[in-house]
Amino acid sequence: MAGKKKLRIQDLAKIREKTKSLMTIRESEGRARVTVHMGTCGIAAGARDIMDTLLGEISKAKVQDIIVTTSGCAGLCNAEPMATVELKNQPPVKYGYLTPEKMQKIFVQHILGGQMVTDLVLAVGSETMY
Amino acid sequence: MITFRMNGLEVKTEEGSTLLDTAKFYGLEIPTLCYNEGLTPFGGCRLCVVEIGEGLRSKLVSSCTYPAEEGLVVRTDSKRVWASRRMMIELMLAMAPGSKVLQDMASQFGVTQVRFTPRNEECVLCGLCTRICAEQMDARAIGFQQRGHKRKISTPFDMRSEECRTCGACMYICPACQLRCQGPNAETALCNGCLTMDPSCLDHYDDLQCWMFDAGRCGTCVRDKT
Amino acid sequence: MKHYRAHLLVCAGTGCVSCGSFKVKEALEKEVKKRNLQDEVQVVATGCNGFCERGPIVMVQPDGIFYQLLKVEDVPHLVEEHLLKGRPVKKLMYVPPAEKQPVPKMKDIEFFKHQRLIVLRNRGRIDPEKVEEYIAFDGYEAMAKALTEMTPTAIIDEILFSGLRGRGGAGFPTGKKWAVCAKEKGTPKYLICNGDEGDPGAFMDRSVLEADPHSVLEGMVIGAKAIGAAKGFVYIRHEYPLALKRVEIAIGQARDNGLLGENILGTGFNFDLEIVQGAGAFVSGEESALIASIEGRIAMPRQRPPYPAQKGLWGKPTVINNVETWATVPNIIRRGADWFQGLGTETSKGTKIFSLVGKINNTGLVEVPMGISLREIVYGIGGGIPDKRDFKAIQIGGPSGGCLPAKMLDLPVDYESLTAAGAMMGSGGMIVMDDKTCMVDIAKYFLNFLQDESCGKCVSCREGTQRMYEIVKGITEGKGKESDIALLEELALITKDASMCALGQTAGNPVLTTLRYFRHEYEAHILDKRCPAGVCKSLIRYVVLAEKCTGCQSCKKACPNDCIKGTLKDVHLIDQTKCIKCGACKEACKFEAIEEQREEAIQII
């Protein structure tokens, strides 16, 4: 991982491959990657509570293999708080209009149980880049 | 030397001159208020605007701050320039109708109406006082505060200034300080006592027709006001 | 129109792209051309299919066959077997599982499917506080290329040929600005990132700085190489604490990793950045005022020429660009000017981020190709107006922009068409309004903003905005005179003409566009003393509905001005000549018998 060492160009490619593999949980041991969107819109809508709920549930369930991360604004600001759940080998699922209760349900049913909570799903997949 | 055209004439000036410097050199009169030869140009009153460029790309710029450019085409008295100048005078009169300088200018440029509620302030925020205090008197006791409609000139925190030497330079140079004459329309926002000119040529042409000579003061084109 | 016998749909969702779907697409295009099939087979990039775990995905139509986990090496075999010999390649195929639950795929959702992310490509998928995640998605690759493989002239040419125009509002060709600065002999040269974003309702720059700060840093290093600068400033308004924090962290991490500062990536190139905070003024977003602000002077614009590219910060050649512009640069260097030219219109290339706010169902940040129509943005991406109300106007470009009515919804969004219509691209704020919005009130709102934010130097701007505000305010209060419209137009045009900087030069726009497209509303306010949208309180009448009034006297007691007459159990009456429109009576009434009446409901007695 990039630390205090000054990078050279060849290091960039190495970091790219290594980090990407971690982020897309294809080869790593993680079972799921959950991103809580914390741009100003998310924070204003209560994303911190969602994050706290998620972390609380993880420690309650005593699971070690869930990657929790944050990102900036996901674009659809009026649907905040939002979270993206990516199970291993499955497309990312975006949940919106979250509350701590909904996050709890998603953790149990989707993250632990492997089944999407259909009526809370905003979208499946990712956006088009150009 | 920079060569460009002013009112159709080819003019030459030194690098670093402004359009106003050039006009003055050639004897072309451009009205000013916030400009003073001994101070850095400010470009705030917008009276000295001239039209540069041609066709769709022409625009108005303040001649006191715009540097002379090779090949520029400048018109100092176009219809557009006059419309702006008159509005600036009207707006400033609405701020400070008590100013002799502004009332005289209104008469000189044919401003015959003030369509805004007069505020009866004594300052038009031209900045001459702040500049003379800083540049000539080296005191920097006063300056601009705030912005927009709250803008004003005062000492820091409106407190009595230790830098101010009560030299009176600010009062000397202020164009609004000179009180207007108490003529026939003393109580109104507009005096027009010295109104002499309201050129009719701008109704038909895009430029003032007598721009080289005394801009209308001969009285030939004055409309009959009766 | 060419008739293709087959389409190769290559998924270009972020998931597949991160696995190399663009490289697969390029390989397919090359192979198709090599086999001389380019007139029969079209290769198209599409939105995400939703099967991101199996990317890169290519679907062959009309066969309907999904190929998955494709690598560049698979391409020649695939083209030869499937397209030439007609034999689908089984080992590359994907059989989608039977869909148990109908969940919406991103590619089907209007909000997402019309967007093309360039600047926002990392949104929602990286942690902006981890530089390695930025690197994971090709971050700093463009910078490495620029520092090691390109000359300054080559970099400038690439940006010039791409057609990139400044995204801060003026739309000046970025490559041209850089070329002018590079030619200047003065040293040292500076770069500035304008993150002052003052337009009400605009938050594009904030979002980029918060979600992907490294993209801006990378762009600036590339720019520094192009013009020969060693120092840059990121000017962020004080009101963006999260953006300030994220950029500070990003700069720290970049420095620690040798991506910023001395000897970047070991190439010997030096460039460092400093953050400067803005402090509450809109005018400090204007380039010469911003420069004055960094110099520690009052934020007041100055006459140009000379332009900042010639004489900027401390009199030295300075390139100042907007956040979005800087964030676009690495993408152009990484993928090439030709790629960027592939999106957008003839004069406006690439994409633009818009903040879609107001009376719209899907509020948020959208990045769309230039040339998309307003209708697509409002009804497609935006999902239309809430509560099924009618669209009335869309305000584009902030206080410097203008309001466009429904009849202009098919206008393509690009610099020239918006200016021709009387609006302005501006920084990209789009405020949607419904039929309950009063356009005169909107003009009043923006004029109030402008009279507050004018620096105050020019009489035309300072007095012009104040007097326009006074007149429009009077109109909303029922004090308008017939001569007001002509005076407003004259004042607006002269304010635009005679002012020195872009704030004053566009200050007339709120008045001019609302007069151009909604003149009838002004006339209603002035001549009929009514507000058609029911917003301007002074032009509303409070009326007691006889059929609902029980005569309880609650309203009479609540009225502060003693305007209600009526005895117990009798229908009460409001004296319109004394009513001050405070609304206390309506609040006091428990029987909903007092109504705010707009024009349609007022009966002529």
Q: What does it look like?
A:
The complex is a heterotrimer of chains A (130), B (226) and C (605). Chain A has 130 residues and is an alpha+beta fold. In chain A, 38% of the residues lie in helices and 18% in strands. Chain A has a single domain, classed as Glutaredoxin. The longest helix of chain A has 15 residues, at 9-23. The two termini of chain A are 29 Å apart. With 226 residues, chain B is of the alpha+beta class. Chain B has a domain at 128-173. Chain B has helices at 19-25, 79-95, 100-108, 128-136, 169-173, and strands spanning 2-6, 9-13, 49-52, 59-62, 73-75, 143-145, 152-154. Chain B is globular and about 50 Å long. The model of chain B has no long low-confidence stretch (mean pLDDT 88). In chain C, 38% of the residues lie in helices and 16% in strands. Chain C has a five-stranded mixed beta sheet, with helices on one face. Chain C has a five-stranded mixed beta sheet with strand order 8-9-7-6-10. In chain C, strand 8 (261-264) and strand 9 (269-277) form a beta hairpin. In chain C, helix 9 (204-211) runs parallel beside helix 11. The interface between A and C is large, with 54 and 77 residues.
Give the SSE layout:
The complex is a heterotrimer of chains A (130), B (226) and C (605).
Chain A: H1 9-23, E1 32-37, H2 40-45, H3 47-61, E2 66-71, E3 83-87, E4 93-95, H4 100-112, E5 121-124
Helix pairs in contact in A: 3-4
Chain B: E1 2-6, E2 9-13, H1 19-25, E3 49-52, E4 59-62, E5 73-75, H2 79-95, H3 100-108, H4 128-136, E6 143-145, E7 152-154, H5 169-173
Parallel strand pairs in B: 1-5
Antiparallel strand pairs in B: 1-2, 3-4, 3-5, 6-7
Helix pairs in contact in B: 2-3
Chain C: E1 6-11, H1 14-18, H2 21-34, E2 41-46, E3 58-61, E4 65-67, H3 75-84, E5 93-94, H4 110-113, H5 131-136, H6 141-149, H7 152-162, H8 174-183, E6 189-195, H9 204-211, H10 213-227, E7 229-236, H11 241-256, E8 261-264, E9 269-277, H12 287-294, E10 318-322, H13 323-335, H14 337-341, E11 351-358, E12 364-369, H15 374-381, E13 391-396, E14 402-405, H16 415-420, E15 429-434, H17 439-453, H18 459-476, H19 484-498, H20 502-505, H21 509-528, E16 541-544, H22 554-558, E17 564-565, E18 573-574, H23 584-588, E19 594-597
Parallel strand pairs in C: 1-2, 6-7, 6-10, 7-9, 11-15
Antiparallel strand pairs in C: 1-3, 3-4, 4-5, 8-9, 11-12, 13-14, 13-15, 16-19, 17-18
